[in-house]
Amino acid sequence: MADSLFLPLAAKVPNDHSSLIFRNCPFPSRLLPSNSFSLQLNESKNKLNELALSQYSLLPLPHRLGPIRALDSDVPRPFHKGMFTGLLGNLSLLSYFAKKKEKEAVVVQTLGVVSIYVVITQLAMAEAMPLPHFVATSVVIGAGLILNFLNYYGMLNATIWQFWEDFTTVGGLSVLPQIMWSTFVPYIPNSILPGAIAFVLAVVAVTMAHMGKLSEEGVKFVGAISGWTATLLFMWMPVSQVWTNFLNPDNIKGLSAFSMLLAMIGNGLMIPRALFIRDFMWFTGSTWGTLFYGYGNIVCLYIFNCISRDFFFAATVGLISWLGMALWRDSVVHEYDSPIRSLKELVFGS
């Protein structure tokens, strides 16, 4: 984006009185100079333009400004790094659900991995992503999909699967605090210290678990880290979006109301299953995504008058009705008098 500002003065002959000073900030009409002064100003402009043209024409060809690629102005340079975060989250959750034999959830996470890879491939084809990064990412994605499906069908060696789980544990725990920290830059100093500290702690925890230095509860905790870090990565996405909306309210107009509605519906459809099998991590991630990512952005769109009242009212009624029905049906299936008991079992166990 910034590259487009460095253009020769003689590349375009301006037509307004203010372009010599503020190219993109024209003066209001009441501040324009008189006609006599305008003539003098025009003569000065012509001389400056002729001088600038002669100066730039003397530059050798290799030193002239090159063309600006469209991707440089439309796509931020660290965009593919955000894709890596989502990819790691999808792969971690894919491993979690593959281990639990949750077929529908495995399909959803697989689609997430494939869709992100399609975007990454497009970035690589447009030379917006370094080729070595793309090759390494392709290897990780291919290995992750193959290992997860082999493990799902019981065809994978336990040692190989353990290595993959350790990889996702260390990777997820290293990325999560770094993403949280970078969200609030430049209001806080830009630093890689959070990610570095988390990486060291993750390696130490995994090593101690393999050496038998942890208790049984500690081993279970380390084994659950990858799933929880993946869930927290997805839970942080709406926090980052809301923070961006707060800092730049105009950005909210770029959000698609129907995309946010689909995000709310997609996460909401996972809630009944997570509640039924008493998977607190799955329930937490799905509920957070429904309320804060999908519905939360719909609220922002409504506040900034980007959607109609009818759209907002329909989304609100539909969300409340679906959550209420999910809690009610779960209590009926388990023959409980109140859905509160279902929530207690979900959080604290039976």
Question: How is the topology of this model organized?
Answer:
Elements: H1 35-57, H2 70-74, H3 79-99, H4 103-125, H5 131-152, H6 158-183, H7 193-210, H8 216-247, H9 257-268, H10 271-276, H11 280-303, H12 309-333, H13 339-348
How would you characterize this protein structure?
Helices cover 71% and strands 0% of the residues. The chain is mostly helical. The protein has a domain at 249-349. Helix 3 (79-99) packs antiparallel against helix 8 (216-247), helix 9 (257-268) packs parallel to helix 12 and helix 11 runs antiparallel to helix 12 (309-333). The termini are far apart. The relative contact order is 0.06. Mean pLDDT is 79; it is low at 1-34 and 47-78. InterPro entries: MEX1/MEX1-like. GO terms for molecular function: maltose transmembrane transporter activity.
The total strand number stands at 0
Rg estimate, integer Å: 27 Å
Structural class: mainly alpha
**Largest beta-sheet characterization:** none
Number of helices: 13
What best-fitting shape do the alpha-carbon axes yield?
A: globular
What percent of residues are in strands?
Answer: under 5%
GO cellular component, one term: chloroplast envelope
GO molecular function, one term: maltose transmembrane transporter activity
InterPro entries: MEX1/MEX1-like
Transmembrane segments: 79-98, 105-125, 131-151, 187-209, 221-243, 255-276, 288-305, 311-328
